[in-house]
Amino acid sequence: MAHLLKAEILGQEFTLKGDLEEQSLEKVAAHLKEKIKEIQATLPGANKVQLSVLAALNITYDYFLLKEEFDRTMSTLETKSRQWLLKLETGFPLSPSSEV
């Protein structure tokens, strides 16, 4: 079920709609506001469009860093899972001290 949340961002009211719980939508809006606030602190003369685009770029950059980390972690887990499965299938005894 879609939830709605009214949020004021850069002096303009937006209605956020999503499948997330209202509390999660609030976190999304708060995160965006925080990014904008960080940019305003370093670029006090920036206009609303500049702030919005820079916030979007910063959030996208953070997303890609996390996605790369997630992909590396998943790759490592898949490799280790295959190794453990092979050990189980070949009857290799497992012990708590076994390194994969």
Considering the chains and any ligands shown, give keywords for the structure:
alpha+beta, 100 residues
Summary, kept brief:
With 100 residues, this protein is of the alpha+beta class.
Please explain how this structure is put together.
The chain has 100 residues and is an alpha+beta fold. It contains 2 helices and 2 strands, in the order E-E-H-H. The protein has a two-stranded antiparallel sheet with strand order 1-2. A hairpin with a 2-residue loop joins strand 1 and strand 2. The protein is elongated and about 65 Å long.
Question: Which helices and strands, and how do they pair?
Answer:
Elements: E1 3-9, E2 12-18, H1 22-42, H2 48-89
Antiparallel strand pairs: 1-2
Helix pairs in contact: 1-2
Largest sheet composition: 2 strands, antiparallel
Q: How many beta strands in the DSSP annotation?
A: 2
Provide the β-strand percentage band: 5-15%
Helix content: 55-70%
Indicate the mean pLDDT: 92
Question: Strand pairing plus helix content: what structural class?
Answer: alpha+beta
- The number of helical elements comes to 2
How large, in whole angstroms, is the Cα Rg? 22 Å
Unreliably modeled segments: none
